[in-house]
Design brief:
- By secondary structure, this protein is mainly β.
- It has two domains: about 20-395, YVTN repeat-like/Quinoprotein amine dehydrogenase (Methylamine Dehydrogenase, Chain H), CATH 2.130.10; about 400-485, Immunoglobulin-like, CATH 2.60.40.1930.
- It has one helix and 36 strands.
- The chain has a five-stranded mixed β-sheet with strand order 1-26-25-24-23, with no helix packed on it. Strands 2-29-28-27 form a four-stranded antiparallel β-sheet, with no helix packed on it.
- The radius of gyration is 21 Å and the shape is globular.
- The protein starts with 17 loop residues before the first helix and ends with a strand.
């Protein structure tokens, strides 16, 4: 769903796996970039609120999440050592007020652990797993009933020597699963890509001869998929351990590879984000780059706060040029999670004090984001929700109030039925259809509504893919993701 993205695990030599780094917390010394920040310890235009998760297993924290809308979000738990299998998930459909929980394939015992999730809507989602501690086999599970049941999907990723780092679907049918063994094994053909055109019923590996030639050890540390990749429409980008960006303009049919730097970058991974088809940021182990030509060329981005590792960076959808960043504030891994944001495409950054230890996070709009951290009982810490505004100042007076929108069918072809609730029918309702980066595609206005339940048929003229449907009435605003087939 750009879907990293979660915590990225980093290494400085192929002899260290993410598991070893996490357990040993080995100290690393590196040369840090000079930073230019607008303020230190400044208060962001919003805050994170812990909402619990409903998960009772312990110890656990969140490794992967996927946010569908302001109301709907999914989360995956891991064991903090990354050596014990964990398959708990949670889901909310009411903005975090209540949580549904469960275990994916409990019969697997401790052999496999969940890594990342891609959620199409409130009912349909795919989860990837890897075996622990070996990290050289993959699994994919799918649910179509909100997690009540999960079906395992099969492919050559089940074979020893394969694994999946992240999964992305462009629509209900067409998806990619991309990964490699997570141990840094210097096999030339370590990176693998699988495709499906029927929702995962059949996964076919793209033959190596149809792909650019991977470098030795070019693959991924097998960790959460949040932030591992970025997708805009049919285009997708991801970064590898060897500091290269792989790019497909057409849902994975064709691929190109771009170098981040002329220097030989080894043994690192990158969180990557794009605001549109041209402008993106890739940040990883102590270094970051920016592109304005779709990833063909990259220039060093030295304005980020100094850190040994940038865990996750994401452009905020619908907020022009706004990026959010989590990074390591100490000289060892997983000790001091810190946050910063930029309002100008990364030219300058504002550091945010006293923030929770979020591993994965994902914004769905300028006003709403979701994050996952340490789980402290079913009602304590766990899943977090960002409330605030990264949009225009005037929008600060338009706090989000639930319309509880429902779309049928979703995915839809040309026409959808929008169902929602309102209390006051004295003001018109404005509906905006936009892409994932806030670019308006179509608008509607309705005046003759009535209190309570309303149903509106909408004829949507938009290209296939994920869309944002935003409802506005007076000071009430709410956004939900929909998919046009």
């Amino acid at each position: 769903m750009e879907k990293f993205t979660h915590v990225l695990l980093w290494a400085t030599a192929s002899i260290f796996s993410p598991l070893q780094l996490k357990i040993m917390k080995k100290l690393y010394s590196i040369c840090l970039f000079l930073v230019v920040c607008t303020a230190l310890g400044a208060q962001a235009p919003g805050s994170w609120t812990a909402l619990g998760s409903g998960i009772t297993a312990a110890p656990r924290d969140f490794l992967g999440i996927d946010a569908v809308s302001a109301d709907v979000a999914w989360g995956l738990a891991e064991h903090p050592t990354f050596a014990v299998g964990a398959r708990e998930f949670c889901r909310t459909v009411d903005g975090g007020a209540t949580w549904q929980t469960g275990v994916i394939d409990a019969a697997n015992g401790g052999a496999f652990t969940s890594l990342a999730i891609y959620a199409l809507d409130a009912e349909t989602a795919w989860v990837i797993m890897t075996n622990v501690p070996t990290q050289n086999r993959g699994k994919i599970y799918k649910t179509t009933n909100g997690g009540q049941t999960w079906q395992e999907q099969t492919g050559s990723f089940n074979n020893i020597g394969s694994a999946i780092a992240f999964i992305h679907f462009f629509d209900a049918d067409n998806g990619l699963a991309i990964g490699s063994p997570g141990t840094g094994n210097p096999a030339t053909d370590s990176l693998r890509i699988w495709k499906t055109s029927n929702g995962g019923d059949i996964w076919n590996r793209i033959p190596p001869e149809q792909l650019p030639t991977p470098l030795a050890s070019e693959g991924f540390w097998i960790t959460s998929g949040n932030g591992h990749y970025a997708a805009v429409g049919n285009k997708i980008w991801f970064g590898t351990r060897r500091g290269r960006i792989w790019y497909s303009p057409d849902k994975g049919e064709n691929w190109q590879v771009f170098a981040l730097s002329s220097q030989n970058i080894t043994n690192m991974s990158f969180s990557i984000t794009f605001s549109d088809e041209q402008n993106g940021i890739a940040a990883g182990y102590g270094i970051a780059f920016r592109t304005n030509d779709g990833g063909q060329t990259w220039t060093p981005l030295t304005s980020l706060p100094a850190s040994i590792v940038y865990y996750r960076v994401q452009y905020v959808p619908g907020a022009n040029g706004v990026c959010y960043l989590t990074y390591e504030g100490s000289q060892s891994f997983f000790n001091q999670y810190r946050h910063a944001y930029s309002l100008n495409n990364g030219d300058t950054w504002t550091l945010i004090a006293d923030q929770p230890r979020l591993l994965p996070f994902e914004f769905v709009s300028p006003t709403v984001g979701w994050g996952g951290g340490d789980i402290d009982g079913p009602d304590g810490k766990g899943m977090y929700r960002w409330s605030g505004n990264f949009g225009p100042a005037s929008a600060l007076q338009a706090p989000e109030t639930a319309f509880s929108p429902r779309v049928f069918p979703n995915p839809f072809h040309n026409q959808m039925l929008l169902e929602f609730d309102i209390e006051d029918n004295s003001l018109p309702l404005n509906i905006t259809v936009s892409d994932l980066f806030g670019r308006t595609i179509q608008t509607f206005q309705f005046s003759r509504l009535h209190p309570g339940l309303n149903q509106l048929p909408l004829q949507v003229e938009a290209p296939p893919g994920m869309l944002l449907l935003t409802l506005r009435q007076g000071g009430r605003v709410q956004t939900v993701k929909v998919v046009r087939e």
